[in-house]
Each structure stands twice: as structure tokens, then as C-alpha cells.
Amino acid sequence: MKNMQRLTWIDTLGTTYASGAEEEITLRDNEKAFQKYHIRPRLLRNVAYRNMSLTMLGQPVGMPLGISPVAFQKMAHPDGEVGTARALANHGGVMILSMLSTTALEDLPRKTPPGSVHWLQIYITKDREATRELIHRADISGYKAIVVTADSPVNGMWGINMVHNLTLPSHLRLPNLQAKGEVEVSGSNLRSKVGFSLLDPSLTWKDIQWIQTFTALPIVVKGVLTAEDAILAVEHGASGILVSNHGGRQLDGVPATLDVLPEIVRAVKGRAEVYLDGGVRKVETFLKPWLWVQKLYSLVDQLSGA
């Protein structure tokens, strides 16, 4: 089916969604990592009533499931990000809206069911005042967290995508960026324009602390792949860590997210919540990292005397 999709998706958008960076080693490894672990089923347990509800950054959610940020969703379907958020709301998960969404961040809370939990993903841009204003908009619109993508100081080297020009259709906008003309999105080569206009290669951990000077929203650092960076994230005020390699679309050759999850959970020692994306394709792959984290948190508590 996947091969048929690749043959059918000859349009640029299909290629964009399906591919990864350079040789796509990390993209493939994300999926392969899940095949190394198996679920040990236990029998004759009463499962007539199943409750997976919990809290994420203090907000009650129906299950430990979220949608990582995906840009330009109205290019794939007219409902775009709102459609994705509504579907997720039926299961009580967390919607992370991309800064590069084709839906204004203010529209998501208005067009989704009451009680839906939304976080906003951002890149800390060259224009710090624009970043500050975007976070303020999220704050007053009811978003519950800011997810800072930290693994993209520059654009990744996409493989098969490099021969394509990603173009935003004329009827679509990037409303979270275009209010003050932060980025020009007309014409071709959209990805290069966005990267050149926005991404700041000078970012440091101090920028995570800078955000905390003007918002009380919890911060999730996205893109962490090592215990060392997980510790630094916590030390600089992060409330959550999203273990992510950008879906294998940023730096090829980095490890699969599931493979590094244990070392990061152990390093954090319960001081921040830990999430994972990358390689999750079906129900059992969703369950595996969640079960990993539950087991690891239990071990950390035992070792720390909790």
C-alpha cells in the first residue's frame, strides 16, 4: 500500500508528506525501532471498562495521545488543521498546532469542541518581537503550552523533495505569520523562503529562558534526542520534552526516537513530562512508547526512593 501511495502521489504535496531527509535512513529507522519490541499480553483481566485518561501539563486528557505539528494541512484537505483537531477531540488527545499552519491559531479553539486541549508549536524566529506576539496570541486564545522546535536552526536536506518546488496555492495563507508580513509565501520554493525568513541559527538555551520572561505557559522542547540535552532542557525551565527527530526530515542519521526514549526518561527523573513522536503508524506502535514510559517512570521512582 505504501509503495502504491508513493507511485500515486506524484504531486509535490504527496512527496513532501511522504519523504525524509537525504537518504531517509532515520525515517526508516523510526519505524524499524518499533519492530524490535513486542507487547506481552496478559490474560483474563477485566477490560470491560477501560480508562486511559490522565493529565498532560496539568490538563485532563482522555488518553495519552497527541498530534505533532504538521504544516500546510489545508493543502491536503479543505478542513485542514480544524478537521484534524476535531477528530482528535473525539478521543480526548492534545492537538499541537504548527506555527506554519494554514489555520489561524485563534480559529482552532472556536471551531473545536469545548474542553479540547491545544498547544502551539513555534520556531523562535529571527524577529523576536514576532515570536513574542505569537506566544501572546496563543496565551489569550486559551492554548495550554508552547512547543519550541529546537532541532531546526537551518532547513534539513530533504532527499527526493529537493527536486520539487513546494508552492502554497493562491487561495491559502499562513495566518500565524502573515499578519505583519513576516514571510513572503507567494510563488514557488515555499520551504526555502520560510526557512530563510524565519529560522535563526544563533539560538541557545538562553532563548528558552527568554520565553519564560513574558509567559507563564509551560514550555515543551521538541527535538531532544540525548540525555544531555534533556537535562539541559529541564535546567532551563522546560516542563515537557518531546523526543523527536522531526520525523526523519531534518538531520538524517540521528537515532530513532524509540531507541533513545529510555535514556531520556532516566535522565529527566520525573522533573518534566516526556513525549515521543516518529514511527508511530498504528495502535500497537502508539502503545509501545507509552508502556515504555510507564515502566521507566516506575523504575526511576524506585531508584530515587519515591
UniProtKB/TrEMBL annotation:
InterPro entries: Aldolase_TIM, Alpha-hydoxy_acid_DH_FMN, FMN-dep_DH, FMN_HAD, FMN_hydac_DH_AS
Family: Belongs to the FMN-dependent alpha-hydroxy acid dehydrogenase family.
GO molecular function: (S)-2-hydroxy-acid oxidase activity; FMN binding
Source species: Argiope bruennichi
Cofactors, names only: FMN
Keywords linked to the UniProt accession: Oxidoreductase
Pfam families referenced in this protein's UniProt entry, alphabetically: FMN_dh
Residue span, FMN hydroxy acid dehydrogenase domain: 1-306
Name of the protein in question: (S)-2-hydroxy-acid oxidase
Recorded GO CC terms: peroxisome
UniProt catalytic activity: 2-hydroxyoctanoate + O2 = 2-oxooctanoate + H2O2; a (2S)-2-hydroxycarboxylate + O2 = a 2-oxocarboxylate + H2O2
Family annotation (PANTHER family): OXIDASE, PUTATIVE-RELATED, S -2-HYDROXY-ACID OXIDASE-RELATED
